[in-house]
Each structure stands twice: as C-alpha cells, then as structure tokens.
Amino acid sequence: MRWATQVISWASTLIIARLLGPNDYGLVGMAAVYLGFVQLVNEFGLGAAIITQRDLAEDQIARLGGLALVMGGGFVALSALLATPLAAFFAEPAVRWIIIVSSLSFLVGALQIVPRALLSRELDFRRLAWADGAEALVAACGTLALAFAGAGYWALVIGPVIGRAVSTLLVAVWRPHRVAWPRDFRSIAHAVSFGWHVVVARIAWYLYSNADFAVVGRVLGKAALGAYTVGWTIASIPVDRVTALVGSVTPPVFSAVQHDPHALQRYLKNLTEGLALITFPASVGLALVADEFVIFALGDHWRPAIAPLRLLALSAALRSVSPLLPQIIVSTGHTKRNMQFAILAALILPILFYVGTRWDTAGVAAAWLVGHPVFVMPLFLAYVLRLTRLSLSGYLRALSMAASATLLMTLVVLGVRLASPEAWPVGVRLLTQALAGVAVYAAIVGTAYGARLKALWTLLRELRS
Fold it and tell me: Do 334 and 387 form a contact (C-beta atoms < 8 A)?
C-alpha cells in the first residue's frame, strides 16, 4: 500500500507542479518551516505511550485521548497567534492564512491518536495501511481537483487537510474509543512523562538531522548547499523508503515482546540482517557509481554534488539499520535514556559538521560517515545489547552476510569499471556496472546464504500474520 500510494503521490505531484508555479510552492514551503516543527510535537508521544504501556486502563486511555484533543486545539490556537508574525517575517501576507488553515490538521490528527495507537498495539497493520493509503489518495485527488479548478496554493493546503480527515474517520470507525476530559492528571502522569521524553528525543533528532544543512548554508553558501542537498536526497533514496516502511511496523512488534529479551534479540538480529541485505548493496553501489550517475542523470553542472553523494551514500548504509536501536529502547520503556542519547547526538554532530566545512561539502558529509558510527550509534547500540542480552559479536554477525556480499560486489564493480573503455557513453558504463553489481550480489547471496534467506522470509510472514 505504501509503494502504491507513493507512485500516486509522485504522479500527482508532477501534474500539480505543471498546474501551479514556483511561487505557490514557495508560499507553502515558508509555512512548512513552522508547521513541520509543530508536527513533531503535536502528538506529544501519547500514541507511543499507549502502544508501549500495555497496562493502561480504559479510563486512562480515554483521558489521554482527551489530553490529545486539548493539545491539538492548543496548537491550532497557538498557530493562529503566531501566523501574523511569521507572515511578517517572510514578508508574505498569504503565509498567515496558510498556517491557520493547515493547523486544523493538528486538531483532526489528535482525534486519531488513540484509535491509531490501539490498532498498532493490536498489530492490525492491514487497517492502518488502508487508512494511510486512503489519506494519500484523497489528498492527491483533492489537491489535483483544486489545482485544476484554479485554487493556486490553496490546493496544496486544503488537499492534505482533507486527506487527514478521511484517515481519521476511518481509524475512528474501525477502532472506536471514548475520550474523556484529562482530569485526575496523576493517573496519566507516567504516560505523559513517557510522551515528553519521546517528544524531546524527536526534537533532538530533528535538530541534528538538519544541522548539516544549516551549517553548509551558513558557512559555505547557497551554491554549496544546493549541491549538498542534492547529494543527500539521492543518497537517501535507496534506504529511506525501506527503513521508514519497516519503522512503521516494528515499534508495536517490539512493544509486544518488551519483557522477553530473547524475542527482542531474535527480532533485532533478523531485522538488522534483512535491512542490511537490501540497503548495504544499494548504498555502496550508489557510492561506487556516484560520479557517472550524477553526470548521466543530472548533467555536468552538478559535479559538486558527486563528493558529498559518495560519502553520504556510504553513511546511509549504517544509518539504515540504526533506527531499530532507539525503537527497542523506547518500546521497552527506557524513553529517558533514549532522550539523553538523542540530546548528546544533537550536541556532538553539529560541531563535527562545522569542523567538516574546512574541507567543503565533502568534509560535512564525512562528518556523517565518521561521526554517526563512532560517536552516536555506539551509545544506542551498547544500551540495546544490554537490554536484549545480545553480544556485540552476535550483532556484527547479523551484518556479516550483507557486508561480505557487498564487499565482493564492490570488487567486481570496480573491476568492470576499470575494464570499461573510456570511449563508451557514460550511460552505457553506468548500466554495465549496475547490472554487474546486481547480478554478482544476487548470485552470492542466493548461493552462499540461501538458508538464511528462507529464514528471513519466514520471519516476514510471521510479522505479516
């Protein structure tokens, strides 16, 4: 469902972009700076609290639902107050009403926090997938219809709000639950504290995940930022979709076995192994052909994006498996520790990005390649290994199949690259290397690790059921 809706979204975006202009997207982009940040904290981690804390009584869940509504309404009111100064900051009066109308999604989204969390806790991913698919489809169709009707930037504002309303209605019908005024706050204080830790960790993640863009733009300028942004976007494509898809399923799965270290250990090993099998060859392969890919796909004027793309693609390989670690920490109730680790990462990585600017955008990208696996990932990994009673060697063995096959693939691709005549068109050289890499990797994994692939397939079937 996620892939199907993504195709619809891409197709509709191309059509909408032809109907609207850069100014329309620019206005909505200005408002998105504020709205995107509020979206991080709007839910306040209450959904995660309901999923993880399985001993919550019905009355407590109802009060958490009431608190979510109060907070959703509060953020709508706050948005109305801040809309005017934000519009003045951008010197665009239209931004004011874009923020006010878009903020209605905070209140509408608050209505689905409880039913969505309960569906996740019950592992009813089928209905969640249908709700997400319906939201994406309605949002795309609504935006298209409004764009055709000449609504301009309002198409980009109203379409997503309508889509969110539809998904809220669906989950509320499929898993209804009453809401109550959040009185007797002491009875839900622990869940709210849990949610607060989750929110602070999300804010810290948001800060360090975007600090490199801020540093590059401030120190190196807009041209360097443009090249770096393109490099980051391309490097993230092979891993973001897969990791995000798995990440939407694993928290409730980890929560269901939070008191069983052996089950957590098994899921961690197998999911890490499965993710690495997909993301390692994709990321490393992209790094190997980065120069020819950029020249062929984007043109010679994007050469400055090659160096950051190559380093960011290598970094993406490890970043693709690391999200499982904080999910286990949160799902086992250790949200405060996860928050502390995220804050440390938000303090360490921006400093490394700034130091990296001495070597231009490649230095900033190298800060991800070195800083994340050396200073950030070990914090989470050491704690998760203790929670799951998994040894470091056991975790590394989960990565070994993908790592060894990717290493052999790398040698073959480099050999094909050296053997390819320089006179060949860049597209032919790129295709030859890509096909060789895919064929060799598939052959190695299928031949040497056939039994493990069958075991991983069995795990996926268990998760689906």
Answer: yes
Q: What is the pLDDT of residue 312?
A: 92
**Phi, psi at 298, each rounded to 5°:** -110, -25
Residue 461 has what pLDDT?
Answer: 66
Q: Which residue blocks in 91-221 are alpha helix, DSSP H?
A: 94-102, 104-110, 113-121, 125-148, 154-174, 189-215
Residue at 251: amino acid letter = P
421: tokens are: 């005549």
Q: d(Cα 182, Cα 348) in Å, to the nearest integer?
A: 38
What angle (nearest 5°) sits at the alpha carbon of residue 52, between those of residues 61 and 5? 90
User: Could you state, in order of their start, the residue ranges of all structural domains in the chain?
Assistant: 2-187, 222-464
Residue whose pair of structure tokens reads 């839910």 in the numeric block = 43
Residue 460 has a pLDDT of 62
Question: In angstroms, rounded to a whole number, what is the distance separating the alpha carbons of residues 194 and 49?
Answer: 6
Residue 463 confidence (pLDDT):
56
pLDDT < 50 positions in the chain: none
Backbone angles phi, psi at 15, to 5 degrees: -70, -45
Residue 302 CB partners (closer than 8 Å, separation 6+): 227, 230, 294, 295
Q: How far apart are CA 209 and CA 345, in angstroms?
A: 10
Q: Which stretches does DSSP call E strand in 342-417?
A: none
- Under 8 Å CB-to-CB from 18, ≥6 apart: which residues? none
Q: Contacts by 387-395 with C-beta closer than 8 Å and gap 24+?
A: 387/261, 387/264, 387/328, 387/329, 387/332, 387/334, 388/261, 388/264, 388/265, 388/268, 388/328, 389/261, 389/262, 389/265, 390/265, 390/268, 390/269, 394/265, 394/269, 395/268, 395/269, 395/272
Q: Of 118, 109, 126, whose CA–CA distance to 51 is shortest?
A: 118
The pLDDT value given to residue 367: 93
181-190: list long-range contacts, CB under 8 Å, 24+ apart: 181/63, 181/66, 182/63, 182/64, 182/66, 182/67, 182/70, 183/63, 184/63, 187/59, 187/60, 187/63, 188/60, 188/63, 188/64, 188/67, 190/53
Q: Of 79, 59, 63, 67, which Cα lies nearest the Cα of 43?
A: 67
